[in-house]
Design goal:
The complex is a heterodimer of chains A (115) and B (115).
Chain A (H helix, E strand, L loop, with lengths): L4 E3 L2 E4 L5 E6 L6 E7 L5 E8 L2 E4 L8 E4 L6 E5 L8 E8 L9 E2 L3 E5 L1
Parallel strand pairs in A: 2-11
Antiparallel strand pairs in A: 1-3, 3-8, 4-5, 4-9, 5-6, 7-8, 9-10, 9-11
Chain B lengths: L2 E3 L4 E5 L4 E3 L2 E3 L5 E7 L5 E7 L5 E3 L5 E5 L4 E6 L8 E8 L8 E3 L3 E6 L1
Parallel strand pairs in B: 2-12
Antiparallel strand pairs in B: 1-4, 3-9, 5-6, 5-10, 7-8, 8-9, 10-11, 10-12
Classes of the chains: A mainly beta (115), B mainly beta (115).
Chain lengths: 115, 115
């Protein structure tokens, strides 16, 4: 049973470019979460999605960041016009449908470096 | 809003010694409580979780944690540490699904193990 998959594992972008991070949840999981980990810090919640729905985006920066979880395919976290401060590790987690939705399983992360 | 505090940023123990990592949370009710471990450059692995019931929870790799409501704490313990336990440990607080379901993480405790 494959775990949560994220790609790419490492991504390098120049300032002003776009970054696209992908997350495939565990099989049977319908909830996806994105978290950001800045260097030497804990993880901070960004967004919670179900298929075709954004449930909670209270942790997303107001500009340049967007997320989707389409009916088919992986969840995508998109960062437009990246800046140096976007350099971080971005983790995706997934959880099964209710009533077992309260435990989140994490992927290996995408480490974004902005030059 | 809930918050999580891990007072110890770094801890060093000798191999074979016992370990206790501290975690305190702030929340109006009893949240769901988790401990995750992160090895360098890796994602987060779930060690154990507490939702309700017995306040002493057993996890993987010989870890256990005890929920103490009166102290708002959920400390992680291991009776005998192995060199492979060197990693960063994160305590996290979760809300029930109908209250948002995001995890709030502590800042982490980096464990080093001396031979």
């Amino acid at each position: 049973n494959a775990g949560v998959m994220q790609n790419p594992r490492h991504l390098v972008r120049r300032r002003g470019q776009e970054a696209r991070l992908r997350c495939s949840p565990m099989k049977g999981h319908s909830h996806v979460y994105w978290y950001r980990q800045l260097p030497e810090e804990g993880l901070k919640f960004m967004v919670y999605l179900q298929k075709e729905n954004i449930i909670d985006e209270s942790g997303m920066p107001k500009e340049r960041f967007s997320a989707e979880f389409p009916k088919e395919g992986p969840s995508i976290l998109r960062i437009q016009q990246v800046v140096r401060g976007d350099s971080a590790a971005y983790f995706c987690a997934s959880s099964p449908p209710t009533p077992a939705a309260d435990t989140q399983y994490f992927g290996p992360g995408t480490r974004l470096t902005v030059l | 809003a809930q918050s999580v505090t891990q007072p110890d940023i770094h801890i060093t123990v000798s191999e074979g010694a016992s370990l206790e990592l501290r975690c305190n949370y702030s929340y109006g009710a009893t949240p769901y409580l988790f401990w995750y471990v992160q090895s360098p450059g890796q994602g987060l692995q779930l060690l154990l979780k507490y939702f309700s019931g017995d306040t002493l929870v057993q996890g993987i790799k010989g870890f256990e944690a005890e929920f103490k409501r009166s102290q708002s704490s959920f400390n992680l313990r291991k009776p005998s540490v192995h060199w492979s336990d060197a990693a960063e440990y994160f305590c996290a607080v979760g809300l029930p699904l109908n209250a948002g379901n995001m995890l709030t993480f502590g800042g982490g405790t980096r464990l080093m193990v001396k031979p």
